[in-house]
């Protein structure tokens, strides 16, 4: 069997809060293969976002190992970590985190500024990504001129612009109504079919059913890791 794309071994993350220690992650071991679509559920405070920040190399664990695409994060150089964050991984959040004064196109072109081997045709790449998420006709709109679902699709286009292997989406439908959320989920499924590995945190059991594999967290641990044999495939957006 080939190496998993993501491997976590005995991960812990402790936060000191005054005299107390919060065990946000309390011994998480997990392998995710290339091309998987994994949903993570669990009560608020169970460690879901903490795991995402660890896998995304945005913070370091207290103990344990993370290997992403063959790179052990604990041993990686600063430039390898920057590459991983900027290129191997795309992030999507609940609050779209778009820059309000920039058009959709400029929001999507932004991450490429941080890329060392900048793509030759920045705008062309950003335009392609906006078309991919069904926003070819909204490129010059400001975030305030778009619906929540459209803003989230801009954020997804921004996450795609450096051709990531992995999309980490932390409650991406949490700020959307269920119909708009379903459109965003259909988009994630289409991207997964194109080969992108997706990890999606959600409170919504219906949204989790879009994934082939569902993990459940409680108190910083994985308490269930199930194959979902009843995958929900919402109709794609009419854009
Ligand atoms: N930066 C931090 N400082 C202190 N405690 C934190 C920090 N980040 C998360 N925590 C705590 O770790 C636990 C897990 O948080 P989190 O991963 O955000 O949970 P979830 O995403 O499942 O709601 C919670 O008790 C939370 O308060
Ligand atoms: Mg969270």
Number of helices: 7
Q: What's the helical proportion of residues?
A: 25-40%
Q: Give the radius of gyration.
A: 18 Å
> How many strand units?
10
- Compute the average pLDDT: 94
CATH class: Alpha Beta
Q: pLDDT under 50 segments (min length 5)?
A: none
Beta-strand content: 25-35%
Structural classification: alpha/beta
Per the CATH scheme, the topology name is Rossmann fold
**Gross geometry:** globular
- Spatially, the strands of the biggest sheet line up as 6-7-8-3-9-10
Instruction: Assign the CATH architecture.
Output: 3-Layer(aba) Sandwich
What is the total domain count? 1
- The biggest beta sheet, please? 6 strands, mixed
SSE topology string: EEEHEEHEHHHEHEHEE
Description:
By secondary structure, the chain is α/β, with parallel strands linked by helices. The protein has one domain (6-227): P-loop containing nucleotide triphosphate hydrolases (Rossmann fold, 3-Layer(aba) Sandwich), CATH 3.40.50.300. The chain has helices at residues 48-55, 78-88, 104-109, 122-132, 148-160, 178-193, 205-208, and strands at residues 6-17, 20-32, 37-41, 63-68, 71-72, 89-93, 166-170, 197-201, 213-218, 221-227. The protein has a six-stranded mixed β-sheet with strand order 6-7-8-3-9-10, with helices on both faces. The longest helix has 16 residues, at 178-193. Bound molecules: adenosine-5'-diphosphate (ADP) and magnesium ion. Residues 15, 17, 22, 24, 42, 44-50 line the site of adenosine-5'-diphosphate.
């Amino acid at each position: 069997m080939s190496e998993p794309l993501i491997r976590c071994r005995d991960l812990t993350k402790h936060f000191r809060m005054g005299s107390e220690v919060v065990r946000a992650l309390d011994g998480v071991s997990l392998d995710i293969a290339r091309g998987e679509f994994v949903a993570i559920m669990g009560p608020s405070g169970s460690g879901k976002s903490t795991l995402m920040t660890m896998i995304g190399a945005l913070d370091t664990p207290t103990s344990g190992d993370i290997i992403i695409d063959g790179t052990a994060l604990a041993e990686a150089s600063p430039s390898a970590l920057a590459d991983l964050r900027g290129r191997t991984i795309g992030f999507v959040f609940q609050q779209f985190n778009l820059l309000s004064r920039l058009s959709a196109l400029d929001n999507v072109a932004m991450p490429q500024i941080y890329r060392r081997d900048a793509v030759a045709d920045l705008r062309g790449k950003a335009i392609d990504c906006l078309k991919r998420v069904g926003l070819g006709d909204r490129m010059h709109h400001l975030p305030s001129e778009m619906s929540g679902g459209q803003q989230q699709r801009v954020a997804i286009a921004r996450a795609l612009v450096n051709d990531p292997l992995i999309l980490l989406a932390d409650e991406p439908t949490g700020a959307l109504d269920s119909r708009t959320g379903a459109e965003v989920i259909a988009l994630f499924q289409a991207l997964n079919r194109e080969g992108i590995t997706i990890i999606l945190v959600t409170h919504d059991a219906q949204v989790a059913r879009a994934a082939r594999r569902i993990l459940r967290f409680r108190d910083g641990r994985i308490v269930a890791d199930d194959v979902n044999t009843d995958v929900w495939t919402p109709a794609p957006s009419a854009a």
